[in-house]
Amino acid sequence: MTTTLQPLDVAAIRKDFPLLSRTLNGKPVIYLDSAVSGQMPLAVIERMSHYEREEHTNVHRGVSTLSQEATDRFEEAREKVRAFLGAASTREIVWTRGATEALNLVAQSFGRMVVQAGDEILLSAMEHHANIVPWQMLAQEKGATIKVIPMNDAGELILESLDELITERTRILGVTHVSNVLGTVNPVKEITARAHARGVSVVVDGAQAVPHLAVDVRDLDADFYAFSGHKLSGPTGIGALYGKLAHLEAMPPWQGGGSMIRSVSWEKTTYMPAPAKFEAGTPPIAAAIGLGAALDYVQALGLDRIAAHEHELLAYATERMAVIPGLRILGNAKDKASVLSFVVEGIHPHDLGSILDSEGVVVRAGHHCAQPVMTRFHIPATTRASFAYFNTREEVDILVSAVMKAIELFK
Ligand code: C6P
After folding, report:
1. Where are the alpha helices (DSSP H) in 54-132?
2. Domain that includes residue 389, residue range
3. Strand, coil or helix: what is 293?
4. Ligand 1 centroid distance, CA of 11 (Å)
5. Which atom of ligand 1 sits closest to the CA of residue 181?
6. Distance between CA 226 and CA 203 in Å, rounded?
7. Are residues 321 and 400 in contact, defined by beta-carbon separation less than 8 angstroms?
8. pLDDT block averages, 10 residues each, the chain of length 411
9. Both 379 and 313 in a single domain?
């Protein structure tokens, strides 16, 4: 049986985002930069504001009613993240500042535990720096080696080489679920199955995936899955790490301080069980509650409806941009999500970004914190448009006109 999805009511949704009705350089703002950071709906802003005005205190400390209430709200948000990712238990959800901190946590705790001198860490060619640099730091410390799963010209991983790249020294495989530059959706379930068959643990960077796809960490069988709230209609300063409970229980803490201990004496300190042992210090409480509200918001819209809308916009934008003379799209994977990177002959991506900006069109120009991807395609940078559930075909048309205008200016 096939079910037809009810399209999103984009006009109504846009009213939830005050920023979308402002102007930029005298033009209506066209926000095509949700990959750098998404916009927050009013429901999220107001939920955080309510917390700050009426509910704020610290969590997991004290017996006051206020403290208990704040702790309950904070832990309810953790439960929302658990449900969103399909994890088995809230004990598998660790709050972090974002994907970057989550990946550093895995490298510095799990990585230090399992990687020894002479071992190998396998990373995909399209990783964000956040899933490269922490592993390089670990490899340097341990005397381990980084190996890379290559990609083809379309921006798809060449998985034929995977069985050869995994050796008896491979301990960890790191892969992004969706590339923030190319939009490629990687077949994480297949990669995980093949890595596990060889005894290798898999760390998935989900930062660019969670805003666009429904994720089920148990179905993917990922050992770790990291994401940031601000790319998912939530605030900055909060994100989460999912880790299989057996791993989290075996891992040592990585930061010490309040909240993560059971008892402290000059002779010996004992730690709380996961996830508390990874959450030293006062957390960003309002941000965590705000992320919970963001998950409620996107789930009420429907993740499948969001995906369908963004897919349609990406297809339309690709069709319109592909015929612009001198414009080359980077990333033509068969399975792609919501990101359109491009270069235009004779115009530096930064100049193009500035011209688009003067037309009110917000995009990102640069290496997108993925310099090895730029090197792979022999370019210094790209201009990147990224689409969210509140964007429209009319906005894509304005992007196309602004690019054409830039081309005229540079003739
Ligand atoms: N990418 C972009 O413009 P943080 O900074 O911790 O919230 O997220 C880091 C990160 C990790 N992995 C991927 C795939 C990402 O896309 C990002 C963030 C933004 O594409 C800012 S660099």
Report:
1. 65-85, 99-105, 112-114
2. 10-41+302-406
3. helix
4. 28
5. 20
6. 8
7. yes
8. 83 98 96 98 98 96 92 98 98 98 98 98 98 98 98 98 97 98 98 98 98 97 98 98 98 97 98 98 98 98 97 98 97 97 96 96 97 97 98 98 96 87
9. yes
